[in-house]
Every structure is written in C-alpha cells, then in structure tokens.
Design a protein that fits this description.
five-stranded parallel beta sheet, binds magnesium ion
C-alpha cells in the first residue's frame, strides 16, 4: 500500500511544525508543506494529496479562496478532503470555511493530538 499524501498549508512556521510533528507521530505519511495558497494549488496540481490541512489566514492567496479554487480544479480537487485550521476566538471563520468548500476544521493551537487522529480516521479511507 502506498503512503498517504497529506498537504499541510500554514504560513506560521511554529504551527506548521507542530502539525507536521503530530502527523509523523500518528503514521507514516508522505507530508507535503506549503506556506501560501498559490503554492498549495501548484502542489495539488502536480502531486494530488489524499487530504489537506489548510490555514485560513495566508499570504498571497488566503485559505478561503484557495478552497474555492480547489473545488473548481479538474481531477480530484472537488473530492479532496480539506480540513481548515482556524484561529481561536475568530468567530464565524468556521462557517466561512465550510461555505468556501472545506469539509471540516480544527481550531489552533492544536494541543491535543487526538483531534488530528480523529480527522484522519474520518477523512482518510
Ligand atoms: Mg496564517
């Protein structure tokens, strides 16, 4: 069985490292990283992942617009599970993320690894 590809899109280095660290603890994934929305779109076009974590506040192309564009992409874009990374105390971000096409969300900071595990179980067949 080939390793599942997970794309982590997060411009804050600390947050990105924390999530990648948690993912590596959970399983042997092929982890791709991007720091802004356009980079994420380029990666998805070249190397379609099985699941992605998407920060919403990103430079160049924000997470909401990135999700909208992914849903319009050819190939597996419309079916790619997208889990938004939302900041605490930003009320309304979750609803906006879901309406932009994200499937689910996790609130940062990710202190509990079990929430990551739960989302993987739900979205990675
Ligand atoms: Mg950010």
């Amino acid at each position: 069985m080939s390793r599942k590809k997970i794309l982590v899109v997060e411009d804050n280095e600390d947050n990105r490292l924390i999530l990648v660290y948690r993912l590596r603890k959970i399983g042997d994934f092929d982890i791709l990283e991007a720091t802004h929305g356009q980079e994420a779109l380029d990666i998805i076009a070249a190397t379609p992942p099985d699941l992605m974590f998407l920060d919403l506040k990103l430079p160049i192309l924000d997470g909401w617009e990135t999700a909208r564009r992914i849903r319009k992409m050819e190939g597996n874009g419309p079916r790619l599970p997208i889990i938004a990374l939302t900041a605490q105390a930003m009320a309304g971000d979750e609803e906006k993320a879901l309406s932009a096409g994200c499937d689910d969300y996790i609130t940062k900071p990710i202190v509990d690894a079990s929430i990551v595990k739960e989302k993987l179980r739900k979205f990675l067949p």
